Structure formats: C-alpha cells, structure tokens
C-alpha cells in the first residue's frame, strides 16, 4: 500500500470512528411526582433501541451521574409511560436523565430557587440547581466519550406541592426564572413540558394557575392535565404508578406539539 492510499484509508477510518451516534436526550426534573414519572427499570429481552438511563434516589442530591443501559422497559415501572413514549417518538436510542428530589421547593435557596433575576446575573447556584448542573456535566462527559453529541431535546418538569403556601405570583416568577436558566444552559429553544399538581385546595390551585400563566406566555412550554388520574389516597398528592404512566404519555403528546413548533 503506497502512501496516498494508506492516508485515504486512515482518513476514512477516522471519519467512521468519529461519527456521532443519533441519540435524543431528555431530562426530567422536579420533586417526588417528577421522580415517579422518571423511575424506570429494565427486564430481560430485546428492543430495537437502547435507553441510556441516568437515575438517582429520591432523597439524594448527586453531582455525579451513573448510567444504566436498558433495552426492554419494565412495563409497570411508573416512568415507563414517559420513557417508552419518548423512545417511540424518537424511533432511535434515547438518553433519559432523572434529576428529581423529593420534598423540594422552588422558593427556597437550598432547593430549586433559580435566583432573584437570572437575566441580569442574579442567580442561585448554592442550592439544587448547582448540583443539577454538575450532574448534567458528568452525564455529558460520559455520553460524549461514547460519541453522543450533547444536545438536549426536551425537558419535563413536575414540582409544586412544596410551594402551595406561597403565592401564585411568586411561583410564576420563579418558574419563569428557572425556565430562563434551563434555556440558557441547555438551549434557547428548549421545549419544556410541565404537569399540573393535584387540586386539593387554594394553594394547589395557585400553583396550577402559575403553570398555566407561564404556558400562556411561553410558546415553547406546555402543561399536561392530571384529569382522571388515580392517587395514592383521597388526600395524597402522589400519583399512582398507573397514573404516572398515563401522565407520561400525555406529556409526550404535549412535547410532540411543542417540538413541531420549535422546528418550524
């Protein structure tokens, strides 16, 4: 083999080895119902595509990410609706990143509070958002080591039960600031789908009012309803596994509509 063909051979080999895998990346963030919506497991069997799953404990606050590869989804896990519908939507491998911590609020410095005015640099990274960004950075390194380009395709948010004593206006402001930060860090056109919380009192209705108000002013954000879903008890805010599966499917339907708008 003379020098030119040898050069062409190795150049072609380099190009083939550096091809980036076609993989969609999704994030689920929030508190306990968000954790339920994104809790998945695998069972023995095969499937046409792989889910690279970054899961966590509901009370942990990790800044390091652990990846599990799942071929066949366990059908009764509470996150099977969201993850399965996203894989069907993508028709290829997906990355499914969970970052949800039970009992966390959007208004406390130690939790998801994004800062007083992120647009002007007044941010809060001392709380949960700072750990979240470190966790994503670690997941990104692992994915890029496998040739997967870091481009987040959508984010799913479920939180609010811990903020029912705060005003609807305060929650709306914090949501807007949080979503601003998500888009600054993850992409300016990032579609965001949130879920309502259970309507139990004026406080919970205020949270849902805030979610609806943000969606009304944000063409890249949508809210999914909890109508008809089963809960753990008549007064419990937690959605049963079967209800989480249904809500996950509803959220993907909302995401599909948003993704079409963003791509136009």
Characterization of this structure:
There is one protein chain. The chain has 264 residues and is of the alpha/beta class. It has helices spanning 3-17, 32-37, 80-90, 128-145, 168-186, 202-217, 241-263, and strands at 23-30, 42-43, 51-54, 67-70, 72-73, 93-100, 152-158, 192-195, 221-224. The chain has one domain (20-263): SGNH hydrolase (Rossmann fold), CATH 3.40.50. It is built from 7 helices and 9 strands; from the N terminus they run αβαββββαβαβαβαβα. The strands form 2 sheets. It has a 7-stranded mixed β-sheet with strand order 4-3-6-1-7-8-9, sandwiched between helices. A two-stranded antiparallel sheet has the order 2-5. α6 links the parallel β8 and β9 (221-224). α3 packs parallel to α7 and α5 packs across α6. The longest helix is centred in the last third of the chain and has 23 residues, at 241-263. It is globular and about 50 Å long. The termini are far apart. 43% of the residues are buried. Residues 7-20 have low confidence and may be disordered.
